[in-house]
């Protein structure tokens, strides 16, 4: 008896579930690395601003490397480097580490710009009102400088969200990898890619619009 | 813990091939930048001057290019078009994807540039008897070019970094070539480390060259 086996099957409702889960994974890895990366990047930015000579000589070139080498190369390199030094990281771990450092390298510049955006006279005024250095940082520099660079930070965060698609090279099944898997099975590339693209777009477009609007309003 | 033996000899032996692939990376990035600049200019002018379907088409292009991952765009040109029976070669996939992406980002830069040139410049040029074409090519665009020079060089760097995605659609530029060699010898870390250095050098060369060119171009 001859029975033909079909390797391909159409796109069905369960696949939406599969894509949804993958989209959540995309959100999770980007949220995690943007959060940690922002804290780290803020700290780096502060060091670049305050540290002057030694930070310019040590920290700046290191951060520059992460901005000058393609993310995909960084990911593959770190994923293969981790076992050499005895770290046991899964694709998610490696992806998070690299995305975090990548975010930090981008945010460091943004943060330094934010601190520089607060005028020296304002800082001096704060200090002469009796504020300590940290009070000045917390109550003067953070609100004013943070506002100046918030749109830039949103740009970085959205960029990392989009770049998180590259973690798929390590085998982490995020949205784009999931759609690739589905395409292989269903042979409906156009439909599935449209769904994946629509998700990224629906996430990124409103936020970037909102940031642009804030920028315009704050510029007045 | 540290019992990994580094083998650099196979990497050194294929270094000429890698450098040649680096040249290919540079070529595809430069080509997509040229296409991107032409289309980006057109998109920016359409968005500033026209209304109706053409405006929405241009806006759709820009927002789609800016709000979805570059890898998604590459996949779209790779597999997505396959649904319509259009099968591009890996080179064309990368070129089309990068050009699409660059055009979108550059259009926004150009739009800002055009808005920064006062309207009176155009009117003054027209009242001197220049045709619209002359006024744009001789008065407006040179000024816009000066304003957007920095963002455009940055975009060139991004184009080089983005071209590394070619690895995932089977294009043998620097990253693809590296993966080819790495998977043949299993010296993944060594190969990608060298590739990272090559990318770093390429990026630095572009930045230095653009700075030298700027000194020459914007002397006045």
UniProtKB/TrEMBL annotation, chain A:
Q: Which residues form the ABC transmembrane type-1 domain?
A: 23-211
Q: Cross-referenced Pfam families, in alphabetical order?
A: BPD_transp_1
Subcellular locations according to the entry: Cell inner membrane; Cell membrane
Q: Which UniProt keywords apply?
A: Amino-acid transport, Cell membrane, Membrane, Transmembrane, Transmembrane helix, Transport
Principal localisation: membrane
| Keyword Protein transport set for record | no
Q: How does it sit in the membrane?
A: Multi-pass membrane protein
Say if the entry is tagged with keyword Transmembrane.
yes
Listed CDD domains: TM_PBP2 (cd06261)
Regions that span the bilayer: 27-49, 61-82, 94-118, 139-161, 190-212
Write down the NCBIfam families for this protein, in alphabetical order: HEQRo_perm_3TM
Q: Which family does the UniProt entry place this protein in?
A: Belongs to the binding-protein-dependent transport system permease family. HisMQ subfamily.
This protein is called Amino acid ABC transporter permease
| Organism name | Roseibium sediminicola
UniProtKB/TrEMBL annotation, chain B:
UniProt-listed Pfam families: BPD_transp_1 (PF00528)
Q: Which residues constitute the signal peptide according to the record?
A: none
Q: Give the transmembrane ranges.
A: 21-46, 74-98, 147-171, 191-214
Q: Where is this protein localized, as stated in its record? A: Cell inner membrane; Cell membrane
Q: Which PROSITE patterns match?
A: ABC_TM1
Give the membrane topology: Multi-pass membrane protein
Q: Which organism is it from?
A: Roseibium sediminicola
Give the source lineage, highest ranks first.
Answer: Bacteria, Pseudomonadati, Pseudomonadota, Alphaproteobacteria, Hyphomicrobiales
Q: Which family is this sequence assigned to?
A: Belongs to the binding-protein-dependent transport system permease family. HisMQ subfamily.
SUPFAM superfamilies given in the database record: MetI-like (SSF161098)
Q: Which UniProt keywords apply?
A: Amino-acid transport, Cell membrane, Membrane, Transmembrane, Transmembrane helix, Transport
Per its UniProt entry, which superkingdom is the organism in?
Bacteria
PANTHER family in alphabetical order: L-CYSTINE TRANSPORT SYSTEM PERMEASE PROTEIN TCYL, MEMBRANE COMPONENT OF AMINO ACID ABC TRANSPORTER
What protein name does the entry list?
A: Amino acid ABC transporter permease
- Domain (ABC transmembrane type-1): residue spans on this chain: 22-210
């Amino acid at each position: 008896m001859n029975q033909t086996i079909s390797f391909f099957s159409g796109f069905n409702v369960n696949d939406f579930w599969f894509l949804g889960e993958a989209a959540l994974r995309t959100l999770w890895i980007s949220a995690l690395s943007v959060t940690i990366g922002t804290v780290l990047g803020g700290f780096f930015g502060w060091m670049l601003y305050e540290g002057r000579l030694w930070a310019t000589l040590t920290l700046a070139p290191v951060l520059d490397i992460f901005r000058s080498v393609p993310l995909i190369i960084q990911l593959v390199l770190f994923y293969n480097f981790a076992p050499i030094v005895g770290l046991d990281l899964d694709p998610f771990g490696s992806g998070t580490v690299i995305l975090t450092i990548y975010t930090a390298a981008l945010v460091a510049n943004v943060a330094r710009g934010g601190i520089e955006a607060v005028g020296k006279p304002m800082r001096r005024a704060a200090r002469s009102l009796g504020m300590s250095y940290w009070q000045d940082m917390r109550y003067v520099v953070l609100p004013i400088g943070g506002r100046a660079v918030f749109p830039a930070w949103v740009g970085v965060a959205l960029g990392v969200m989009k770049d998180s698609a590259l973690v798929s090279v390590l085998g982490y099944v995020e949205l784009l990898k999931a759609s690739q898997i589905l395409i292989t099975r269903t042979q409906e590339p156009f439909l599935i890619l449209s769904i994946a693209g629509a998700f990224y777009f629906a996430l990124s477009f409103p936020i970037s619009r909102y940031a642009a609007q804030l920028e315009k309003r704050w510029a007045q | 813990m540290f019992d990994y033996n580094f083998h650099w000899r196979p990497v050194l032996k294929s270094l000429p091939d890698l450098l040649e692939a680096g040249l290919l990376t540079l070529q595809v990035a430069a080509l997509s930048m040229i296409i991107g600049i032409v289309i980006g200019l057109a998109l920016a002018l359409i968005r500033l001057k026209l209304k109706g379907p053409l405006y929405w088409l241009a806006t759709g292009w820009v927002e789609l290019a800016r709000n979805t991952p570059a890898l998604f765009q590459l996949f779209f040109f790779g597999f997505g078009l396959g649904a319509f029976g259009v099968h591009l070669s890996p080179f064309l996939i990368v070129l089309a994807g990068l050009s699409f992406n660059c055009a979108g980002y550059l259009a926004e830069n150009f739009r800002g540039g055009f808005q920064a040139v006062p309207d009176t410049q155009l009117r003054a040029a027209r009242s001197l008897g220049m045709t619209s074409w002359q006024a744009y090519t001789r008065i407006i665009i040179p000024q816009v070019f000066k304003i957007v020079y920095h963002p455009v060089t940055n975009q060139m760097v991004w184009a080089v970094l983005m071209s590394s995605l070619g690895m995932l659609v089977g294009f043998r530029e620097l990253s693809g070539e590296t993966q080819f060699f790495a998977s043949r010898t299993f010296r993944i870390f060594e190969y990608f480390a060298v590739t990272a250095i090559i990318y770093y050098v390429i990026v630095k060369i572009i930045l230095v060259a653009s700075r030298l060119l700027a000194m020459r171009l914007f002397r006045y």
